[in-house]
Amino acid sequence: MRGFLPTIGRRQALAYVAGIGLAAVWPTSAQKATASQGLLSLPIAGPSSPETWWLDQWYGNTTFAYRARNSFYLEGQGLHFGIDFGMVCGTRIVAAADGIVREVGGPLRAWPLHIAIDHRDLGVTTVYGHLSQSLVTNVGQMVKSGEVIAKSGDSESFACDCSPHLHFEVRYDHMRSATNPVAWISTDWPAVYSPDESSSFAIDLENPSRWQSIYDQPDVRFGWPHLNEYERAWEPG
What we know:
The chain is mainly beta and 237 residues long. 7% of the residues lie in helices and 27% in strands. It has one domain (8-201, 210-225): Glucose Permease (Domain IIA), CATH 2.70.70.10. The strands form 2 sheets. Strands 1, 2, 3, 4, 5, 6, 7, 8, 9, 10, 11 and 13 form a 12-stranded antiparallel sheet that branches. Strand 5 and strand 6 form a beta hairpin.
């Protein structure tokens, strides 16, 4: 989920609505979603490549999120709480599993438009953000795994000339928490094409090996304190 709108104040506001201000209603305890590899499919059909789609930013303690932990990722405990897939605008987005449409709207969560789908048998909700068009219309509508539900857009521009990509999340506990989609999606992650270093992770110099794997990243509890406010970090930010 990359930035839309240039000012920090607006980014803070967007980060707040992305978590829908849940700090005030967060319960004293929450049940963690239990992932089983392969329960979800990728939200884009076909293989990754420079011409189709690519990995733009991992879930978790990425260097981009670390540098923006006090602005854009303020409500997400300083972490990137989804996976970003780069692609041209208008790419077809598909449902990651059978489910029921929970939300269709914007700019809540991921401007300009997002869709959220409940997968009640799995205990999670998938969120598809920065869409240019929704092909589902009604809350409560049932969708099938692999069904085309939307077309991708740009997080910064209606003209699709800044940061076109899909922001994809897996949430649980009534949307109050996000968990790592890598553990849920059946795909060959090391083989996914990534054109740059945007997928690297920030390093806590007091504990350099922590959260350095795409498979080992913490869950996010929206509105809770930062997880990555390091005294010494690489890269500094």
